[in-house]
Amino acid sequence: MKLLYSNETTRQQYTSLKSAEKLFGGNKQLALSLLARINALEQACVVIDIITMPTFHFHKLHGKLDGYFAIDVKSRRDKWRIILCPLDENEERFDPCHIDEVAAVVKIIEIREVSAHYE
Fold first, then answer.
1. pTM for the complete prediction?
2. What pLDDT, in 10s, does the model give residues 24-73?
3. Which of these, 22, 34, 119, 25, lies nearest to 84 by C-alpha position?
4. CB 3.0 to 4.6 Å from 70: which of 14, 28, 44, 81, for a disulfide?
């Protein structure tokens, strides 16, 4: 799958072990897990490949992040998640985004940020 990043800082955090460790306050395990998740996203053919992996806990976000989705960085016990948005072939957001209807064709996602859940 093709990954786009919301900005250069986000791209660095997702592709550099040093930047990822800094993001997680020196926690190397979380940094390695983040890089592994990004690798899994890159290796997936379409979004449904990620949705069907229970350990990722792919879920829809609500409120101010409506239209975005998230996967866990490491596990459900950790507060960290990767916020992403599926894009069409023109790199535009689906509006509205009915993931169950487009999951088998989405080959591009935008990575918005890594965030601590409920912070």
1. 0.88
2. 999 999 999 999 999 999 999 999 999 999 999 999 998 888 889 999 99
3. 34
4. 81
